[in-house]
Write a structure and sequence with these properties.
Pfam families: DUF1329. The protein is an alpha+beta fold. 15% of the residues lie in helices and 33% in strands. The chain has a domain at 174-466: Clam (outer membrane lipoprotein receptor (LolB), chain A), CATH 2.50.20.10. The longest helix has 14 residues, at 16-29.
Length: 467
Amino acid sequence: MQEDGRPNMKLLKYDHQYSRRHFLQKLAAGSGSAGVLMSAWKAFAATGEVSKAYPDELLSIEGYTKGKIKTGDEINASNVELVKELLEPIRYEQILKHGRKLKIVKSTTDVMKLSPWEYIETTLKNAGKAKFNEQGNVVNAADGQPWIGGNPFPDAKTGIELLAAQTLSWGRHDASFYAIKINDVAIDGETRFRYAGGWAELNTVARVSMDPKPYWTEHKDKLRFQTVFFTGPQQFRGTSFMNVWDYDQRKFPALYGYVADFRRIRQFPADQRFEPLLPGTTLYLSDAWAAGDPLLTWGNFQIVGRGPFLAGLSGSWNADNENWEHKTHGGPKGTTFWDSTVELVPEAILVEATPTGYPRAPISKKQVWFDARNQVVVGMVTYDRRNQPYRSFDGAYSLYESGSKKFMDGAHPYWSWCHVTCSDIQTGSVTRLEQVRAIEGHTSGANDPKMYDKYLTQTALMRLGAN
């Protein structure tokens, strides 16, 4: 108490209005480094975390809501208005009207826990070495060769820099295999379709963990190989698709598919990227990692928003389930949404882009939210040709470490996505994807040198189709 009997009050030097003004000023300028009190990238490079770049009010949900919401609390219809501006409009509507809930966990400040360790180390080593060449592709500034690994623009100041880094390395591992389960839930809560299968992706350049580094010389003209295949249900068993990406982001990938009914591989039109891979799902090739198309088949990149955000960045690995499967809640049957944990991100950058290379695209634009500290995608909404909200995507990442339980990626715990919610907000259907430990002997993990021969050739497609 003060001498006059009034309670002591902590005077905030940097309150909500200060941060809001700062974000608006950067938005008006059209570019700018992440961070409020200093550059978030410089703070991380110097200390390994970014707390010094943001005021206390952006580093915890308690600080942001002035104690009205605390770590461990649940966001639901009764309190979502307190955090409305921290959510995309679709998650807000689902919480308010459809029973979706989010559990708040402590904000992660150690950026080394927000991406694969080797990717971050290589980003620190190669910072400042990237540029766009005359064709608009990211190259090593010293010799004009393909990018040499890590995030090429860790202190990104433009929308194209953010999406370029995401396109170059989706999962931030040199190679990843995800055993996946997919459930499509209709507006009435009924699960109409259930699929299982695998997704493999392998970078041939910008490699940070696997030899040869930084390039697989034989495929230096390419960016990645990527395959998705299905093991169930029975009528789709063996169906698979493979994309071979050119490094030149003006070119469409070569797209091959094995159709189980015809027992042969055929080549598909590579620009048909806005159609469901399988009946009932809301997932398109274009949607992968919010950067499923070559960068330069999109355009009009703009930063259209900045500010704090709620995202799933930790605590999402279900180590207590032998196959890592997640629980659900909400909707008419209690199965529409994943049980999810989220935390306060002090700054997210909202980037907008339009599909300039697709005259028949059913969407007019996409908006993608990036965690400004490490440029991980934390949300996406696409809009139809009438410019109305169409489909949304929000996922959860995690370090695969929980107490004494760990799933290792070499010398470090595995970091990856855990689950994704894809919502068609015009029909009310929701497609839930989760990464599980294994599907019929296909096991999730990263940087397996056998992955190319096992999943990423036409011979591999034939073999997967025959099994």
